């Protein structure tokens, strides 16, 4: 993955980091491979979980290189600006800022997404939601010709945009409580060529929504409030709290969505949701009480329950 819009202008404004290599006068600046190895060693010493991977993605991202170029251009010498940019980024990672927050963007479902302070960083687990929802969306498009979906709490827009990119007959409405998130989602739709099929509205869940949809999709906050402080610093200190906190039992958002789904789900429509690893039964019970039946569930790569898909009980 190659990023053309790096955060290097921000990074270079930072004060000289203690991590930076400081070659003596007349000594060549570090090579690309040298910078990578120094970063990986610093991350390992700091106890980061994936030091080599973090170093590879951080260095390549800051310098605008592909991972292939990281290997093939390892002997290339870095100039002072490149070294300073990498050093500043490494300092931020050592302070437990996530790699992709530092870079300001990341890949999701083969697409590029900008991040902002108002958005969650889209994660691989959420790709399971897109992968699971797509066959249902495609089937609806074949039946109807055109389909409408709504992404509740869209954040970066990753879910809606990935679905639009893979289903040309779909149009999406993306909602979020944060104007900044919707601004980011609109920018990401433009970057990925689906801006003409994505509409946005600011509000909590269905509060500002009118009409019915063939698919309702969401990755809502589902962390138990009391557990937020136990999360890794990369999450609790950098992801927006509103996108994490699911209330006392982690299920507040599911109750709010289920309460209004009947007003907004089209005939033969489906609801596709990401869930916490231990929430399948509880979320199923919430939607069952509102007249919906569990049609499918899917596990993530770690073998944990991650996605549930509901239909109207009358159609199941």
How confident overall, as mean pLDDT? 88
Q: What is the total domain count?
A: 2
Tell me the helix content.
40-55%
- CATH topology group of the largest domain: Rossmann fold
Find the structural class using helix and strand composition: alpha/beta
The CATH superfamily label of the largest domain reads Vaccinia Virus protein VP39
Order of secondary-structure elements: HHHHHHEEHEHEHEEHHEHEE
Number of E strands? 9
Uncertain runs are: 1-17, 21-29
Strand order of the largest sheet: 5-4-3-6-7-9-8
Main sheet: strands, sense, barrel: 7 strands, mixed
Q: In angstroms, what is the radius of gyration?
A: 22 Å
Strand content: 15-25%
Task: State the end-to-end distance.
Answer: 41 Å
CATH architecture heading of the largest domain:
3-Layer(aba) Sandwich
Q: Write down the CATH class of the largest domain.
A: Alpha Beta
What's the total helix number?
12
Name the shape in a single word. globular
Give structural notes:
With 316 residues, the chain is an alpha/beta fold. The chain folds into 2 domains: 96 residues, Helicase, Ruva Protein, domain 3 (Orthogonal Bundle); 204 residues, Rossmann fold (3-Layer(aba) Sandwich). 41% of the residues lie in helices and 18% in strands. The chain is built from 12 helices and 9 strands. Strands 5-4-3-6-7-9-8 form a 7-stranded mixed beta sheet, sandwiched between helices. It has a two-stranded antiparallel sheet with strand order 1-2. β8 and β9 form a beta hairpin. α2 crosses α3, α2 runs parallel beside α5 and α7 crosses α8. The longest helix has 21 residues.
